[in-house]
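Structure tokens please, single chain.
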Amino acid sequence: MKADVEEKSAETHKHPPEQTGDWLWRELVSWFWVILVFLVIEGALVQARVIPSGSMEDTVLIGDHLIVSRIGYDAGIPFTDWHIPLWRNPKRQQIIVFRAPLPEQGYPDFIKRTIGVPGDHIKIVGGKVFVNGTALVEPYALHDPDFNQTPVENYPPGDTNELDGRLRPQWQAELSTHIVNGELVVPPGMYFMMGDNRDNSNDSRFWGFVPRENIIGTPVVIYMSIDAPEEVWDPGHIGDRFATYLKVFINPGEVRWKRLFHTF
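Here you go.
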């Protein structure tokens, strides 16, 4: 018995009880590394995005939740405006997530398809897109034939006044300076973006080119897709969005199961 008591006393001496300050420090260090890993992933590797509009239908639907790869395109500090463009550049017809050049709206994140890269000559005739004189093959594009004679489907317009009220004022003043022989010429370091749902897309036709430094990345996979009203996914509707997620547990039929894990 005496030996047991002495042994227990020795073990206690070797391993004294952990002090509150030591425990707190260990927890802080652990959380520091968790936060650091999150910042690295969110800032330079991948981001999650949810689609709030139908401008990319049927390629991407309202309520699709995407994982966007930033690798090689952009790196920055999450929740700040600090970022730097990296070495990869968008390719023609590639889907890209970017900061729209709309400062009055707070540079919102858009998802569109890259139609023109630097140096490209673009012309749209009756809804058909020509780049450098060659018609693009676009099985993804949605068109309503009734709109084929409208100015947005015959672009650039001969007279920017044809789109008066639909063009961002800065773009309306600048557009004619980029037209050569009836074709829109994409300047260095700029990209021309359009939505796949051509008759329902707020894109470069209305507000101009996207600077390279605005490129965030490209979608890689749909990890969730929920059939819910468009306004649920608009910024500021946190309560509606949370209620939608809860509703999915009660009615899983609102999940578009066939779209899950679809890759781009």
